[in-house]
Amino acid sequence: MKDGQWWDESWSPISGCTPVSEGCRFCWAKRMSKRLKGRYGYPADDPFKVTFHPDKVNGPLRWRKPRRIFVCSMSDFNHPDVEWNWQYKIIETMFVNPDHTYMVLTKRPEGFGKRLDDIYFHIGRNYGLNWDSGKAENYPFPLKNLWLGVTAENQQRADERIPILLQIPAAVRFVSFEPLLSRIKAAKYAPKLDWAIIGCESGAGRRQTDVDWIIDLKDTFVVYDKPVFIKQAEIAGKLIKMPKIDGREWNEYPKG
Ligand code: SF4
């Protein structure tokens, strides 16, 4: 875990995106893409254009020890411009490198379940795995090493995205409440989710997150014995990574 982050490594075989909701205002990926423009496959004319980086598809092979990997931190994995075959290749990499844990976070869960299903079917077929051939117990899908999450920055986005996430079969389903822009009531979702990540916005011009909103959400998940990761909070005007809240840091993970 690096510097208060919830992943060990990030892996970005896709870059580029377009804003979709309030949480996108200070998009970190957009700022980084501008810095990289004209280099490392980031288009010089439009560095934040949705772009596939085939040279990065096998990136996780480099890491021998098992890692928790944030997939497509420079994009939204389910952006409408992301092509089926890009997603296929990325998920195939996860399938053939099962020692790592892959965390996919999207603000666009619509249609993702169907897309995943279709990709799983094709990987299964290409690797001779067939649910119907009496090998159901060995059928590896949904992948156990793929954790799916949505971002919910306010109540509206929580109510739009979490119900869709809950319909998608996944080993672990999580929500990133970051940047947390208002109080969110999540009691109806918490029992069905596996993990909550909570944090305020960072950087210049950041919008305020009341610490009470963070504590409220944390308590909502703790009641159901769900792991909570509190990444950062602004306390007495100061941004603190991995803050102590209720006397301790919150750096819990699902068992997976
Ligand atoms: S969805 Fe994510 S990557 Fe895309 S613009 Fe919004 S914050 Fe940036």
Explain this structure.
The chain has 256 residues and is α/β, with parallel strands linked by helices. It has one domain: pyruvate-formate lyase- activating enzyme (Alpha-Beta Horseshoe), CATH 3.80.30. Helix content is 24%, strand content 18%. The protein is built from five helices and ten strands. The protein has helices at 28-35, 84-96, 112-126, 155-167, 211-223; strands at 9-11, 14-15, 51-52, 68-71, 101-106, 146-151, 172-177, 195-199, 228-235, 238-241. It has an eight-stranded mixed beta sheet with strand order 1-4-5-6-7-8-9-10. A two-stranded antiparallel ribbon has the order 2-3. Helix 2 packs across helix 3. The longest helix has 15 residues, at 112-126. It starts with 8 loop residues before the first strand and ends in a 15-residue tail after the last strand. The model has no long low-confidence stretch (mean pLDDT 95). It binds iron/sulfur cluster (SF4). The site of iron/sulfur cluster has 11 residues, from helix 1.
